[in-house]
Amino acid sequence: QVQLVESGGGLVQPGGSLRLSCAASGFSFTLYAMDWYRQAPGKQRELVASISRFGMTNYADSVKGRFTVSRDNAKNAVYLQMNSLKPEDTAVYYCHAGPSWGQGTQVTVSS
Question: Could you give the 3-state DSSP secondary structure of residue 39?
Fold first, then answer.
């Protein structure tokens, strides 16, 4: 059974940082690209960052230079380091692999 479990969300002030984690189980983690998506209220879910099975990364233009995606194949985990957070980064962040989604973790950027 595939499981993706996100953690690390919360409330942070503008300019602050958060690190999201996604613990994966139930599939061959090293064979899959891993993605982070986000969905803000009233908006469509959008791709934030991806990391291939070989460690190649891609980012949405809106987060380039501020967010960093990484993976630890030994721990079956993927991370999203988010720096210089802005109010417009407020959303539920989801971990994604293949056809599977995590339950999401709320990130709120507000003073």
Answer: strand
Instruction: Identify the CA nearest to 94 among candidates 42, 29, 47.
Output: 47
Q: Could you list the mean pLDDT of each consecutive 10-residue stretch along the chain, which spans 111 residues?
A: 96 98 95 97 97 97 98 97 98 96 98 95
The Cα–Cα gap between 21 and 5 comes to 8
Burial class (CB in 10 A: 0-12, 13-18, 19+), 69: buried
DSSP for residue 43: S
First to last CA, the chain: 40
pLDDT value at residue 81 = 98
Tokens at 3, concatenated: 């499981």
